[in-house]
Records
---
Amino acid sequence: MRRILLLFLLFPSLGFAGEKVKIEADSISFDHEAGIATADGGIIATDGETKLKAPHATYNTKEKTFASWGGISVDKKNGESFKTESIYTKNGFENAKLDSLKLDLSEGATVEAEGVEKKGEKVVLKSPSYTACDRAKCPLPWEIKASSVVRKENSMTYKHARLNLYGVPVFYTPYLSHPTPEARRESGILFPKIGSSADLGAFIKVPYYITLDNTHDLTLSPLFTTEEGNALEIEHRKNFTFGQTRNIGMFTQDSETDEKRWYVYSDNSFNLTKVWRGSLNLKRVSDDTFLRKYDINENSPYLETRGGIEGLWNRSYLTLDFHSFQDLRPNASESSLPHVLPLLNYQRSFSPMSDGSFFSLNLNSANLSYKNDGTHRRNSGKLSWTKPWIQSIGWKWTLDLSMRGDAYNFDDVPLEDGSFLTGNAEKFTPQAMLKWEWAFIKTSSKSSQILTPMMQFITSPKDTENNSEIPNLDSLGLRLDDANLFSDNRFHGYDRIETGSRINYGLSHDIIGQNIGKIHTFFGQSFRFNEDETIDETTSLNKEFSDYVGRIIFDFNKYFKSAYRVQISEDTLAFNRQELDLFLDLDRIYFQTNYIFNDELDSASLETNTREEVYGKTFVKITKNWGTYFYDRYNMTSEEQVEFGGGLIYENECFKFDLGGRREYTSDRDYEGEESFFLTFTFKTIGEAGMGKNWNEIKRENQW
């Protein structure tokens, strides 16, 4: 028995990892003269991780050969297993032959072969087939067959491979390689992405993935097109113990002008200490339309490069960084875009005092430089004292007293009218704010309701002259909405301050039910004691009574969610703005719509005065495996289609298929409205071919 135990310890490739192997058999004998050990009948060998079953086995101690026949099975604890009719090994499985093979891998993948031969680390399978589908199904949804396969470490390499879909050969290659299912990171060619668009024509993108080490990889993706020049995309990723870096870029030569075209993105973040963290985010492109033409996912009208450090300690937070911009809009003047270096922000909240009040400090400093060598310097500081308290009657009060100072220096700063500004400017703005809230709560066995009236009084000296003297660079796009009604300064940046005296008031109502979910409503308005000429009249904030703003939010568990926001004219009760987001998920039917209507927007926001647009997306799961989706974006102001598309999806346990198309009607210089089609095949354990999304991915990406 002891010799049989040692015998099996010689075969780690059979899967035994432990130091002790328990062996059971109906009979065990040993011929001392010939040096042959024999076991017959119900052989079971196990070490707790692997179990081997065989009817017959012999081991020649002199020639170090092992043979077993009559049907052998090996099962591993990780789920992998294989079966073979016979096995012959020599020198501790250094060399081995299997008469046939049925191998069960992780994730449901299986391999069958007529025979197996092992020499050293290389395993050669004869006439194998590989699939991740249930082999009980006939025909298989997909299967890879080959004349031979070499399995080495974590990769499988096929010779004369063909891909069968439901028994029909659809693809042949003399060479194919892919990682095994248990392999985490292996170098090799990824499935190509194939498609067609109006700008590029037919195209194919063939990524090649390179593993440099466990935390470092590189992907080279040549792109071949019929209408434009070929391109190369390079992606580099590296993880460190203290941070990470990701860099991606594409390079090509224009087919008509021979000009070099490219884009580069770089995203880097590093933990310098427990307190300090550094980052660098680079975005640059050769020209304004390259990203749209090559379908790079970037919808912003400009690109921002930024970097710096940030620190968080005790009750303090500090950032010191720089910003650089690239404008992608037509007819945009690069000379008016500043480079910000440095930009300093510091915030500190001091420990509360015995009465609950506390001080807070905000500091900001910025230096902006222009292409004409002009400079714009700003230093700003704000000290606040805040005192919250609750009266016994249930009234909640918040008192905030603050002093803010701003100092500016201008040297040849370009203005919108083409002139230049040189000089200094200062602003000193004391402000007092008092807010009152009173919550009424009603509960029952099935629901709770909270009704909260609130009112806020804010006062500060009116400072029209200083507000208008300073160029407005970071406070554009002012508008009133339900989110900023109770803000002490509705301007986003530092160049403008909302001054004067005003009262903000509103009413909030919440219903929380066991079965109906949550319903939240809010409605409010602002009253200004003095008109402010520095505020654009289209915002309704420059007059006494502002427009009404409100919202209604429904959250009925996971099945239905919606948010409706509105701005109603105080004079005419006309709708100046409406926004609706609606989400419905009934498992087999998914629907999402977004509607926006804006009228009388701030002219400084660079948006049109009136905009009305609707976007809808629908997914229908027709059967267990089939689904379809459609989406459409329509400009109701110009009565023009913006884009629409749709597709058909098939998905089972081992195979995914997506056929779809898209039509985009927008154009921008050399970028034409795109009409594209795509076909995607996704094979479980192997990868994806094409440019598409599967059913669950599309639903997840579009949940509101």
---
Amino acid sequence: MNNIHFIGIGGTGMSGLAKICLEKGINVTGSDIKNSETVQKLRNLGANIKIGHEKLPEGTTLVVYSTAVSEDNSEVFDAKEKNIPLWHRSDILRYLANDKIVYGVAGAHGKTTTTTMLAEIFVRGERNPSIAAGGKLVFEGANGKYDTKGEILIAELDESDGSFLKIDVDTAIITNIDDDHLDYYSTKENIDMAFAEFIKNVSGKLIVNGNDKTIMKLLKDRTDYITFGFKDCDYTLGEIFVQNYRNTAKVYYKGEYIGIINIPLPGVHNLLNALGALALARDKKIPDDVIFKALSIFQGVGRRFEIIGLKKGRTIVDDYAHHPKEIEALLIGAKSFGYKRVISIFQPHRYSRTKQLYDEFIRVLNNSDICIVNKIYSAGEAEIEGINSENLAKDIGGIYIEKFNDIVEYILENSNEEDLILTIGAGDICEVGKMILESL
């Protein structure tokens, strides 16, 4: 276990786990298809990283891969040839969690934001948590953090490939359950069954969205849970309003007013994320003043309504939303901030998801004033006949633009002051926002 190699070390989840290993004193090597700021930060911490996939470094004792890595990867092949153990990233998370009490965050949408809000609260509350998140913690500048002084690990748990069932969880937040990742589960029933097993496996308390009917149905055999939501829950939100680009709501516990959530993120969905984090933090006896202060100074998370820059009256924001419900919440929230126009630059993620949710994508993207659709980011999937961005753009009434440079050119010619320019998707569309900022 003293020489761990990460394939795709610059990836969202992998980089955080690699950083935790480095901070634990483990020797880390890795590979990735391209250089990046994340890769360079890991190098600065001591990781030996090469660009491209070839042979494994001498002395490698364990290889870590993610679902995105194919079985014909040369380094996977090399590990098998040399009988070096191959672990999925969830296996290394389970190993890193062995000596910690795990507070996990699961759900179809809102996991990363809720995880980072929870992390911010526990850091401000001086609980010294270790953290494994699916997005960059702005206050940490990375996706992960290992703290030798604390006994807690706050972990985002990935349901996309069923791997969230591998982790022993003490306390869990479940944000919602939805019909995402059907490429893995095939049916909504299979998704529900996976969450039912997850619920059964949580050894301690559950903090759940009480307005999610599926979650409440799956809780039928449990009594040790706390609910949060808009109504008929232990924790509820009231009197929601937007002021000075901040989202605000009063919080009630069993009908009694306890304080005000005030966050710099748009949308009621983000208030709900904050409420879930608050509920768990209160259950762990973190004082209310610490919780509300931490949420008020929450610095956000990479690729979740991340402000790339403001220039010439335009605001450029990037968001990871890739499911219609996430996009709908994003656009409604963005419009509540009072921009003159919202220009969406959407990159569909996976052919299978685009096909399965095609009509929903059309419906929600119509909330944009202008919608540019970029080529589908395949994430390794084969093309599906008839499923393409040209057709999607046409059916939305938007504009199909394939090349990033051409998108930038269109924005330079057609955007105005007070416009919000919003890049949307789980692929590499985030690069466009940076290009626009540099070109304005």
---
Amino acid sequence: MMESKGHTKVLRHNVAGDMCIHDTDELDGELIRDLSRAYKGVKAYTYTHASKSAENFQLIHKAAENGFVINMSCETLSQVMECRENHVPAVLAVYEWTQKDKAARRIDGITYRLCPASHDKNMTCRDCGKCWKKGRKEVIVFPVHGTNKKKTRAFLMDF
């Protein structure tokens, strides 16, 4: 789906699913190259649970050169650190944001910011725009929500 915010076109690719080669956790380079070309001039972004491999990091960098931002989904702070060391935009899934206020946190030199749309009913992804910002340094934190939240308790941390 493509939405327009003023003159900027915004597209979130993969609302469900991923861009990995079937039955692997490796990104499909051909698909990403094709999408990067197709999305040139569009603020396009997505998320992936692909492995944190050198090959995947390289594909993410190539996509970003064309403006297609691929956020690496992480479940631990060490995964975030690995993404940061490789200059790959990271997001962090957590069970709950435990801080009373919604202010950003800084841990080991990395700024973690709660997704504004997760706690402000008047905020949308289109209004915020952090996840499609090329070269973003801060990590966006997403608390789990929905009917399957309890299933994630065993492997996601509170933050």
